[in-house]
């Protein structure tokens, strides 16, 4: 349908997958005002490259792959802006949050600051696994890498997040609470 460029294909694909792609983008780059622009970039990229989609059953994976590449590009641009001081320290601006809990909002902001400090591929693997709930094989497919590679990426990200979060007074309370619940404390 999309490969044949049927007019209703764009609407169908947008309606079916835009919320999933938006969620991946939000969790990958953090909640900020550029999400709508990134979402549009993903779908423009999809329709530009739809002819290369060989297997229609892989449509979701194809879109997620485009979303991850778009997120990675956005993260790189943010890092460059921060390095060049083109924004206020390159930090994520405050955005209206679905939660009114200021403690949770601050913890989320600090978590994204931690995620900003790790490798893009490791970050995306971590987000797919824990933010999106992907199985390891799904994460590997979405990132276009082997299962072993995605496992290494997630392990590095987990270690970095845990080490940095332990040093943060607010984030460490979330880790401590989880460890108590899991019986690992």
Q: pLDDT below 50 for ≥5 consecutive residues: which ranges?
A: 84-90
Nearest-integer average pLDDT: 81
Please count the beta strands (DSSP E, at least 2 residues each): 0
Main sheet properties? none
The number of helices is: 8
Give an account of the 3D structure:
- The protein is mostly helical.
- The protein folds into 2 domains: 1-96, Rna Polymerase Sigma Factor, Chain: A (Orthogonal Bundle); 98-185, Arc Repressor Mutant, subunit A, CATH 1.10.10.10.
- 71% of the residues lie in helices and 0% in strands.
- It is built from 8 helices and no strands.
- The model is unreliable at 84-90 (pLDDT under 50).
Summarize the structure.
With 185 residues, the protein is mainly alpha-helical.
Tag the structure with descriptive keywords.
single chain, 185 residues, Rna Polymerase Sigma Factor, Chain: A, Arc Repressor Mutant, subunit A, 8 helices, globular
């Amino acid at each position: 349908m999309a490969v044949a460029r049927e007019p209703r294909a764009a609407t169908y694909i947008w309606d079916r997958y835009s919320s999933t792609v938006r969620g991946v983008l939000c969790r990958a780059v953090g909640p900020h005002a550029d999400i709508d622009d990134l979402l549009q970039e993903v779908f423009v990229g999809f329709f530009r490259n739809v002819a290369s989609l060989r297997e229609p059953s892989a449509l979701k994976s194809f879109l997620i792959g485009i979303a991850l590449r778009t997120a990675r590009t956005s993260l790189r641009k943010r890092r460059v802006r921060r390095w060049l001081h083109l924004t206020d320290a390159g930090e994520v601006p405050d955005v209206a949050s679905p939660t009114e809990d200021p403690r949770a909002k601050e913890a989320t902001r600090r978590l994204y600051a931690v995620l900003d400090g790790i490798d893009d591929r490791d970050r995306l693997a971590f987000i797919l696994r824990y933010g999106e709930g992907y199985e390891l094989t799904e994460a590997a497919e979405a990132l276009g890498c082997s299962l072993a590679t995605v496992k290494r990426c997630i392990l590095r990200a987990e270690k970095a997040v845990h080490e940095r979060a332990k040093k943060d007074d607010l984030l460490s309370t979330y880790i401590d609470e989880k460890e108590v619940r899991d019986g690992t404390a």
